[in-house]
Amino acid sequence: MAHRIAFHSARAGTGKSTIVANLATILVVSGYRVGILDANLQSALMHQYFSLDVNHPFPTLNQYLLGECQAQQMVYDVTPRTTPTLPGQVLLLPASTDAQALEQVLRNGYNTDRITDTLVSLIDQLQFDFFLIDTHAGWQERTLLTMLSMAIVDTLLIVMRLDQNDYQGTGVLLDLARELEVPNIALVLNQVAMHVSHEQVQERIEQTYQCPVMALLEYSDHPTLVTQNHLFVLKHPRHPLTQSLKQLAMLLVQTSPMSKEAGASEPSSL
Ligand SMILES: Nc1ncnc2c1ncn2[C@@H]1O[C@H](COP(=O)(O)OP(=O)(O)OP(=O)(O)O)[C@@H](O)[C@H]1O
Ligand SMILES: [Mg+2]
């Protein structure tokens, strides 16, 4: 049974896509089968991390939402090619970067019940161990995809930066998730300065939001981190950021529905 996890944030650019792509890679290195849904229609980027071309005519989430393809047709094996071969597998359900395809979806709308049901059965059918949903930022519109992803996940991770502008929005997002009764909700603090006390920051944030902090990821000024066509953890296995992401992966394995089943292994060395 897959552990379904959505990544949200109140503000744009907190690091959701960076975390999803690299976390998926860590899980694949450990032999897991991982699915990723790029639900950020406004700014689809996930395909770039895995060097996938999503230009027309390749079916994407947009074509699926428009009823132009079956759900199975928008699934691509994007497992990074490495030597030796990685033991797991990552399948991506990408969104389109075509402005027209986005406009059409926004104009036509889509049937949320149909998508929820299809996604849930697709996740079962493809026998994922983990299904990660990368979303857009924001909460004001309660957009359908936000509601949808919160409706089907076991765990919601709200990625935030220690930035005054993030504080109120994160609170509203948390209220929405609690209202929708998402089973597990946690915060991921990203781009945290190395020199601050991580324990103190974690305690303050947990008290403020009455919500656990599942990971605290350091700010890295490594130049290659800013490029999307690059899986940081494969290139820099010993970097502190890779180590922190591995700890997050381990917690997600431990809190996974399958951890009760035999054979669930902790993330292995990159
Ligand atoms: N720990 C980190 N240290 C330094 N830079 C980071 C870190 N995490 C992410 N970034 C950088 O922050 C920028 C935004 O990251 P990313 O695109 O993953 O955010 P996002 O939340 O997915 O954004 P959006 O809301 O627009 O989809 C990128 O340039 C990325 O390289
Ligand atoms: Mg993103």
How are the secondary structure elements laid out?
Blueprint: E1 3-9, H1 16-29, E2 33-38, H2 46-49, H3 61-65, E3 76-77, E4 89-93, H4 99-108, H5 112-125, E5 130-137, H6 144-152, E6 155-160, H7 164-179, E7 184-192, H8 198-209, E8 213-218, H9 232-235, H10 240-254
Bound molecules: adenosine-5'-triphosphate and magnesium ion.
Which key features would you list for this structure?
270 residues; alpha/beta; Rossmann fold; 8 strands; binds magnesium ion
Summarize the structure.
The chain is built from ten helices and eight strands.
Note down, in words, how this protein is organized.
By secondary structure, the protein is of the alpha/beta class. The protein has one domain: Rossmann fold. 38% of the residues lie in helices and 18% in strands. It contains 10 helices and 8 strands. Strands 3-4-2-5-1-6-7-8 form an 8-stranded mixed sheet, sandwiched between helices. Helix 1 packs across helix 10 (240-254) and helix 5 packs across helix 6. The protein is globular. Residues 9, 12-18, 40, 43, 137, 190-191, 217, 219-220, 225-226, 241 line the site of adenosine-5'-triphosphate (ATP). Magnesium ion binds at residues 16-17, 40, 43, 45, 134.
Gyration radius, rounded: 18 Å
User: Which residue ranges are poorly predicted, with pLDDT under 50 across at least 5 consecutive positions?
Assistant: none
CATH architecture: 3-Layer(aba) Sandwich
Give the spatial strand order of the biggest sheet. Answer: 3-4-2-5-1-6-7-8
CATH superfamily descriptor: P-loop containing nucleotide triphosphate hydrolases
CATH topology category name: Rossmann fold
Give the CA-based shape. globular
In this entry the ligands are: adenosine-5'-triphosphate, magnesium ion
Largest sheet: 8 strands, mixed
Domain unit count: 1
